[in-house]
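Batch job 17 of 40 flagged for manual review because the log was empty.
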Amino acid sequence: MSARARLTRHPYAVTVSALVASLGLAACSGGSYPETPLPTSSASASPSSSATTTAPAPAACDRATSSYDALERIPSAASIDDRAMRAIIERGYLRVGVSADSFLLGANNPLTGEIEGFDIDIAKAIAQSLFGDADAIRPVVLTAADRIPALQDGRVDLVARNMTMTCVRWEDIAFSSEYYHAGQKVLVNLESSARTLEDLRGQRVCAPTGTTSLAKLREVSGVEVVTAANHTGCLVLFQQGRADAITGDDTVLAGLAAQDPYAKVTDAEAITDEPYGLGIAKDNVYFVRYVNAVLERLRADGGWAKIYNRWLAESLGPAPEPPAPVYGRR
């Protein structure tokens, strides 16, 4: 029996065959986690009646991390008259686009059946502020490629799914201020001497569709690009011997390595900067400002560090300073 066949797992992780069965992954393609069917809410998708909530005409973007100013204080739910936020408040919960297979960020815990991780706890902090109940969220499982469409068609109010802020994405949606700063790296077999994407020329490297990691991978000549719907799909292909490496954000790769004792994240410097923002519908500017105020409080009162240490410290080290917000978008 090979070392791969004798693979052991983290308590929250499962074998490849269980992944395929539980996540509905098709072994031939990498597959995807089934999306949660929820009705579209026209109210949540419509622009707010408030002057402060109407997104201005697109302007030149020279800093993707620049968001709308945080509210000066966090208002009570009863005092909010913004139309889009009133629809959320009257519904009684946030619909949050999440991953269900990004271990440590947003992943299904097979012991509890709950989706949990760093991104989930950030979303729960917003629900706690708005409803007084951290559990007042309804996770909507999305692939990376479906994050923007789900905001545009009103399926979700918020996307908390390790989403990199880019100028191109600002043309379609809005972002909160940066809530985590990641960097693209490479995961390889323990026996591999490769450290960078350039070291993997002539080999097969997997990245999920609809990600900035895939865009960067395609810039490297001589690498055979392999795609899957998500990073779990890439891990399946890697464990089947159909991909030699996986590229993605260090946070995501740390979760994959925690599930596979025969894999490692290389110690090379990050290939790119990946500033994460919470995705919000483009016209819901007031909601962006509200979320930014909640993030301000999390940075100031130690809440952000607590969430980080719960999920990421073991794999990535003690909590750094949270990313400083950048405001001024008009």
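Reviewer: the log was empty due to a logging misconfiguration, but the result itself is present. Residues 173 and 282 are 4 Å apart (CA to CA). Unflagging and moving on to job 18.
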